[in-house]
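Dear colleague,

As promised, here are the two records you asked about, laid out in our usual form so they can be pasted straight into your sheet.

NAME FIELD: protein one
SEQUENCE, THEN STRUCTURE:
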Amino acid sequence: MNALTEFYGMLLDAIRRRASMDRRLAAILAADVVSFSRLMEADESTTLRSLVAHQSELLNPKIAEHNGRVVKLIGDGILAEFQSVLEAVACAVDIQRAMIIRNDPIPPDHRIEFRIGINLGDVILENGDIFGDGVNVASRLEGIARPGGIAVSAAVRDLVRERLDITFEDTGDQYLKNITRPIRVYQLHLEAQTPDATNLIDTPLALPKRPSIAVLPFENMSGDPQQDYFADGLVEDLITELAKIPSLFVIARNSSYFYKGRPVDVKQVARELGVRYVLEGSVRQSANRIRITGQLLEGTGATHVWADRLEGFAEDLFDLQDRFVTSIVGALEPSIRRAEIERALRKRPDALDAYDLYLKALPHTYANSPAETQKALLLLEAALKRDPNYALAHAYAAWCHEQSYFRCGFDERDKTLALEHCNAALNLGVDDPQALSIAAFVKSNFTHDYDAAIIVLDRALELNHNSALAYGFSALVNAHSERNERAIEHALLALRLSPFDPLNYHPYCALTLAHWFSGRFGEAATYAALAVGANPNFSVAYAYFAAAQVELNNFEAAGEAAKRLVEIAPSFTIGGFTRMGPFRPASIQSLANALGKLPLPP
């Protein structure tokens, strides 16, 4: 009996410790010395003295300067956490650049060099230490970083992008030790790179106004000539599916196959075919497994835009080919859109056309916050002055006016303009899946005619069944009308097709609502938290998270979310939220009832 009592006491202590753990999202930096054992064997006292000097004079001050915290020293390494990904990367860059200077007078075989890995992930804080998958991935990234270099995860790269004087080299998915899933890894180059000007022909073709792409024949790496048919079929299907996307200009198969079996210079191909982007890849079969690698490059400087590696079993080649095509096309469209936005942002103001203005508006539209919405509208209005028949600009203008209506005081003029732009987008964009899906979503939020919206969204998905944007909006409309299983299906498809999309708060919100309306409040809270993480300025996600936490009787977390909600949206009221919700009255009332249990304005 005493042993049983002791066991239950230990169990209760463990539960209490677990409950008291602080979980949070953090940027984790792990650093380690290259070839430390060799240096110690050669000169133990000098190596230790140098390491301590580097830690006290450089690493510790730099981490503090960038608002980080040294968690612990691990032998020859250091573990630190930061609240900001940008600060973590800036700190690592400062350290590695300073180490170049500090090592300059030292013979190469006596230098201390660091490898640094950085990851963004969920961590558990206990007694000042941090644990969890986010820490493990950072440590593994450090292990594959180059000497004097920095390796980061995709989440880190996507948040930093061009905000620092560094460039990223996409090294594809890596299988790290003791991490079961592949991790997309980027290696940092600390100096800005300039494009190589060799092999440029003198008379390039004029680029189309739309983003243009050539899909080169994939190389058969299997050593089996009979596998050429699989590689050729894959490329043919890729060209066919990409050609269905109205926003892309795709070079025909006969032109791109001119390069089959020839050594390829991407910059020369881009100029000869008159395209901005070139997709190349390879196919390798080993036993019954097939591996496909692909990379999308911007032609001017042969810089990476996207890269991935896909693997599968070869039992059913046609099914495998279909899955590969879906994955690649689904990833390419948002990747090209991001690259086009970045290109437009670099253009001179006096050189902007309607397409450039539309691209510049997209990040402001995606933010879905009042101030950013107004910036987007100014750019979209300028685009429509240059091209009044621009269906996509009408669609995004409709969405911006919808955002303004629901979050800036229900101005009837916004509603009128939103519906006018919706109708224009539907009439002008009958074959444009983006324009159709946005317009259907916006119109349903005002009319609550979900059936009509779903017909239009299904048409958009027929036009492009690889569109993450269309699946995301379809998931929301299905969630609003409590078609919960279809909402979940389409939301998960959107996330699979484009896992790093700036609009991923849409499928996360759809998953939140579908689980809420099904009474699964734990899952609803999880997806609401992911929606907040995907867009921390979208106030509605905080309302969903707070309501779900109320249903779980977790009033502390609900109160924190409510506090943050009011900070982001000072004019928020439960009554306004009820009026805003594009749901059936009984559905929105269930959310409002939960929010009514919190200190929120009625």
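NAME FIELD: protein two
SEQUENCE, THEN STRUCTURE:
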Amino acid sequence: MNQTRTFLLFALMFVAYLLWTEWQKDYGPHPQAAAPTAQNEAAKAADGSVPGAGTPAAVPTDAVANEGKGQLVTLSNDVLRLTIDTRGGSIVRSELLAYPDEPVTKKNPNPPPVRLLDDDPAHFFAAQDGLVSNTGAAPDHRALFQASTTDAKLADGQASTGLDLTWSDPSGVKVTKRYTLKRGGYVVDFDQRIDNGSQAAWSGNAYQQMQRVPAPKVNWFKAYTDPAQHSFFGAAWYSPESKFESLLFNDFTKKPLNRTFAGGWISMQQHYFFAAWIPPADQNVTYSTAIIDPDAATPRYLVRAFGPAIQVAPGQSVDSTARLYIGPKLQGTLDAIAPGLDLTANYGWLTIIATPLHWLLSQLHTISGNWGVAIVLLVLIIKAALFKLTDAQFRSGARMRKLQPRVQALKERYGDDRVKMQQAMMELYKKEKINPMAGCLPMLVTVPIFLGLLRVLSESIELRHAPFFGWIHDLSAADPYYVLPVLYFIVTLLTQRMMSTAGMDPTQAKMMKVMPLLFGVFFAFFPAGLVLYWTVNGATSLLQQWWINRSVDRAHEKARTA
């Protein structure tokens, strides 16, 4: 009976966790807009909502329709290929060369790389930058630049490569944008040099922003089976005071961001990958969100970093810099780029559990060379660490199973008198030295670990397209032949058979019989890595329970014949 209660409690807590994560998306705590300040008012002016003298020039929200695109040029290193539109110098396409869009197979040996930034209207996602000024000419993200080359590639032996875009005004103001990529890096170093060749002082502001459309809608089956549909998709940012915060696209109107702080960054997030603008850490930057054409069929969602004022005297030059990360959520490496960037894995309240689990899983992969083997080893380590707890749980369950005939007799004796029934059962447990709550303590430890590992296996890009053995070519996708879900069904069925149903009401007993089938179907479309973990975990628990049942049976038989 104790094992039955534990099994049902786990199922309830797992479903509750799924409901909690969905509730958090719609009703959970979100950051509140800061009180109005001078720089917040500047951000409003940048959106065109607060006109008036003494405020920075407004940032245009999009390109004028009849201007169209400029020339498309490319900049690439060994892991990243960027397509840049000379109209504004916007990065309109990014291909992650080390990450194929689909698993590599014999039938598909060379799948195209993942495209994060994309100029396809259905998946539009662009990184933009520019300058605005109330005192002189300035190139925003609509201005037409001239490129130094049409294709800048990292050559053998080179540590970095760059691409220059230039813009000039008849007044004498000249702006040169330089994008630089280093070997093996996903960080784009961005520099804007403002050369003031005019006769008057130039003042203005630099800004960086990203625009994208929401993910296309999918049918119910893909919404359930595709792990990407359960991952966070929206904007996120970091500040030294509030740390990592996020905002779903649906909340852009209800809880817009408009805050000023130094040492932060702003990003657009999706499953496994993200892009983030990282201004200089010593600058007070105003971060904001907005919706472009909210009534359109496909509105665009915008996040912006609006920098402090820049002053350039006649005949002088000033550089405005920023960095743009376009790449995977490689945990353990991102904080070296900017504080808090590792938090883009977005484990939420499970971070304190998921982060060490990911570290341990990574170390086991280093040893084994296979992520599936690393998952199996992780199961064994967790089972060994929790052995004492689960041993107490299983022994309590085995002893209570032995008491079921006596419990049933007490029920027949006391009928509907629940008070006397409970008193008699407590006396029985006390006499047999059984703690009926012994099975609950392990749940307080094992359930958070399982939920933390669920987040790790769902969000860790290292498992994306990672093969195991045989038919499993991708641990982040469902088992194509449902072998692991069937094995899990068998393990769950055998576990259920070891649980006594004596004393259960008929409805509860029937529910326990169909539970293995329900869980087998439930896991059939989960990522193979997660099902592998739970199958191995269930098999080891089954063996442990079988061994304990045998030892309890021997002890009981020995005591009976003594």
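A couple of things worth noting about protein two: The CA atoms of residues 82 and 94 lie 5 Å apart. Residues 1-7, 22-54 have pLDDT under 50 and may be disordered.

Best,
R.
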